[in-house]
Specification:
With 110 residues, this protein is mainly α. It has one domain. The chain has five helices and two strands. It has a two-stranded antiparallel ribbon. A hairpin with a 4-residue loop joins β1 and β2. The longest helix is centred in the middle third of the chain and has 17 residues. The protein starts with 10 loop residues before the first strand and ends with a helix.
Length: 110
């Protein structure tokens, strides 16, 4: 598992777990987020939701979709970045914007 300075400022990992403030209004540092492998990103999202006591019937699926949106933002995918900015300027928190985009993604892949 990647840990220490290779992670975004608001994601912290030890040798056995990842955690982070994914509701933070600060954007994740794209390079550090993308330096983590996909399993670590999903684990960070799952751990965050668990620590916030957000119960999810399908936690891994939820975290995977969450991670996909974070990946698209970090990679600078135009449509996602523009939508993300529009949602944020409309008053959604960073976390709410990720969830809104994730909801559209989930509907699309059903």
């Amino acid at each position: 598992m990647v840990h220490g300075s290779n992670l975004p400022a608001n994601i912290a990992c030890s040798r056995t777990r990842c955690d982070g403030d994914l509701r933070s209004e600060k954007d994740l540092q794209a390079g550090r987020w993308l330096a983590m492998d996909e399993a670590e990103r999903v684990a960070a999202v799952e751990t965050y939701h668990r620590r916030q006591r957000i119960r999810l019937p399908r936690a891994t699926l939820h975290a995977t979709i969450h991670s996909v949106v974070e990946n698209q933002v970090a990679l600078g995918e135009d449509a996602v970045v523009e939508t993300f900015a529009r949602l944020r300027s409309g008053g959604l928190t960073r976390h709410e914007a990720v969830h809104a985009i994730g909801a559209v993604l989930a509907d699309f892949v059903r």
